[in-house]
What we know:
about 325 residues, mainly alpha
Amino acid sequence: MTGFLTTLGSRLAETWLSLLVLPGLLYVTTSAAAGVLGHRRPFALDHLAHRIDALAAEPAAHATGTVVLAAAGVLACSAGASLLAAALGGAVERLWLGDWPRPAARAARALTGRRARRWEAAHQRYRRALADKARLRAAAAPEEAAAPALTPGPATAPGPVAPVPDTAALNEARNRIALAPPSRPTWMGDRIAAADLRVHRVYDLDLASAWPRLWLLLPETGRAEVQHARTALTAAARRAGWAVLYAVPALWWWPAALIAATVLAAAWYRGRQAVSAFAELVEAAVDLHGRELAGALGLGGEGRLTRETGLEITRVLRKGT
């Protein structure tokens, strides 16, 4: 037990240091330096060094009590900034996933409609390309079948051949918008919603009802992968929260705006990767362990998960609601 408590304490201290103190300390230091530099001379490091030397020469800087209080204040400010960044990260995560508050409902509907129109246009282009490709293949088939029976004759120049539509590229262009008809104002929100829709479309399974039970059946490796993707999304949203905080010192030190923009772009990219990985893993869990869920619920059966079994699982888990 002593060894367990020691290990737990060291892990908590490591987590506290990496998530709270270090990022917050960097932010507090940057904000303090920004207050000294200002807009007029944003890169005057000699002026900053002179100011630090002046503070170090103050009599109070050599008093133990002052140093301890200053260190405690810096650590408290760092932890406070980190907690604020985490709170902002939660708001950013909701924004990314399309869970917008009521005052933004009108903007959410407008963005969702725009995404739906773009997706529908891309979907129609893909369907037309499929039809054109099938028509070209059907037209070419009789000619290829009749070619050996033709008698030799004078060579004729072949007519122009219609280009075969690149259906793979059109399909990829549509899927870059969303994997299913958009129902959220953001790509990340639609990616999560698409996992639910695709599972229901293939298996008639209500993913929201099945996931807590399916989670209990996943092996340790599967849980670890899903947790890693979910943690990566939270970490990316927290980085976006830091970007919001770094926009504050930009009011008096403009290079902070560059820092905020860089951090926000990196966070957004990481967030998209995490959401895509999380949605893929959720679908994979249903594909690989859906039959185990049916067996655990006493529905029996062997082989792959079918629509009939998925619908029966949904009826059992919804409990008549």
